[in-house]
Amino acid sequence: MSMHREEPASFAFSSDNEARAKAIIAKYPAGRQQSAVMPLLDLAQRQIGGWLPRIAMDYVADYLGMPPIKVYEVANFYTMYNVKPVGKNHVQVCTNLPCWLRGSDQVVHACKKTLGIGLGETTKDGQFTLSEVECAGACVNAPVVAINDDYYEDLDEATITRVLEALKRGESPKSGPQNGRLNSAPLGGPTTLKGGA
After folding, report:
1. What CATH fold (topology level) applies to the domain 89-177?
2. pLDDT by residue (tens digit) across 145-183?
3. What percent helix, strand, coil does the chain show, rounded to 5?
4. CATH classification code of 15-77
5. What residue spans define the domains of the chain?
6. Is 197 exposed, middle or buried (0-12, 13-18, 19+ CB in 10 A)?
7. Residue 19: exposed, middle, or buried by beta-carbon count in 10 A (0-12, 13-18, 19+)?
């Protein structure tokens, strides 16, 4: 993913994304192409490098034949869209109640310490942005951090530090539970319905 920190002078879908956009719009009934606004914004954000400058939102609005303000509303409402530049690794720490009860404050502290930035900030090298989110939707494996498209779950200070240090080295750490749990199964294996009649 390239890193564009400045508002580009122009924007248009690449030929690959143009084909993807047409395929996405084709999924909706005739006259309902505006329903594709969310996936098209995602496509534009990925093409730009992780954020949606106004020129890209205007392009999507024009592409779908809708007022730009409607596209701005969508992009500003949903936290999956970034209307300002973010780092190559967008670290989003869930601090909602289930994550907080299981230690998200310590995870936030470890992120700040490891990255040397606060919430809402980006490292000077543009590699990391640290954000707080309200709910990552993976409460059973709390605390959870989303980094770009990957979820890191069952975190504590040590495990999130290992994940971030690996990313700093250019590695791709294993996503998912970080405590040995299989997906969202109980830690330590089944606890009920273990035997026959």
Report:
1. Glutaredoxin (3.40.30)
2. 999 999 999 999 999 999 999 999 999 999 999 998 888
3. 40, 10, 50
4. 1.10.10
5. 15-77, 89-177
6. exposed
7. exposed
**CA–CA separation, 8 vs 2, rounded Å?**
13
Identical fold, 15-77 and 89-177:
no
Neighbour count for residue 55 (Cβ, 10 Å): 15
Single-letter amino acid, residue 23: A
- Tokens standing for residue 189: 């294996």
Q: Strand 176-177 relative to strand 150-153: parallel, antiparallel, unpaired?
A: parallel
By C-alpha distance, which of 49, 66, 64, 63 is closest to 1?
Answer: 49
Q: Three-state DSSP class for 144?
A: coil
Question: What average pLDDT score do residues 9-17 get?
Answer: 96
